[in-house]
């Protein structure tokens, strides 16, 4: 039996929604899993880490951690991995790998985990739920981890937005992006930043994208500190606005930037900016609405009947 696991990329924060807002993106990490006599990982595309020892691979570590948490032992597996998600670019590559590992253990060991179960496990390993929530549920998510270990989440697929990613040819490690942030904020700053986040959410849920774009660019939690780590980021925000973007923000911890634009204007928007920023690849991207998708195969090339396939996604909440 081979399990084919597909996990979407994600963007987080959207400016002021720091560590809580996530959107699943139409870029994917795909893993084919087959039980084997020893661990083996075959990279079938770019955007994947070179990890000689499978035990050091994040997918394997997440799978083994999940098995351990449920008191079980995971057998060795042969993994064939493909990815459209660039590493260390603020598109949730680590969260997607962790979610893939959680789902691997769920399938191989028949744990029958719910989406909330998977999010709890992924959050323990990731540290915060925003990217993992988007990858698991799909769509637009708002999530928060409580001190009791519970994860509170709202998600909806009823947001018909269009985005363009500015993906740079350089990396920015999340740890470095975290280290530039202040340890605390004044009450005045925190209140204003939280209010802006609330307005951003309301604008997205009401499909008021022009307003949403305005609030995307008014963050006080992290963007004022991280923009200087991303060369040309301030110039990109100005140029994107002139080219018609509602707003532009850092995707996750960066260095990718994300513009919210009018649907149907993607090609014109990109053509107007492409030559201005040669160190960035401009990529149109849609919101993913499925989250995790799993299908079973008899072998690496033959899919079983559709009635036997297992697809994991949530119904619309809003």
Automatic annotation (TrEMBL):
Main location as per UniProt: cytoplasm
GO cellular component, one term: cytoplasm
BP terms from Gene Ontology: threonine biosynthetic process
Known pathway: Amino-acid biosynthesis; L-threonine biosynthesis; L-threonine from L-aspartate: step 4/5
Keywords: Amino-acid biosynthesis, ATP-binding, Cytoplasm, Kinase, Nucleotide-binding, Threonine biosynthesis, Transferase
Gene Ontology molecular function, alphabetical: ATP binding; homoserine kinase activity
Coiled-coil annotated spans: none
Reaction catalyzed: L-homoserine + ATP = O-phospho-L-homoserine + ADP + H(+)
Residue span, GHMP kinase C-terminal domain: 200-278
Domain GHMP kinase N-terminal: 58-139
Residues the entry annotates as binding ATP: 86-96
PROSITE patterns: GHMP_KINASES_ATP (PS00627)
Location in or out of the cell: Cytoplasm
Entry EC no(s): 2.7.1.39
Keyword Hydrolase: no
Leading EC class: transferase
Function: Catalyzes the ATP-dependent phosphorylation of L-homoserine to L-homoserine phosphate.
Stated family: Belongs to the GHMP kinase family. Homoserine kinase subfamily.
Official protein name in the record: Homoserine kinase
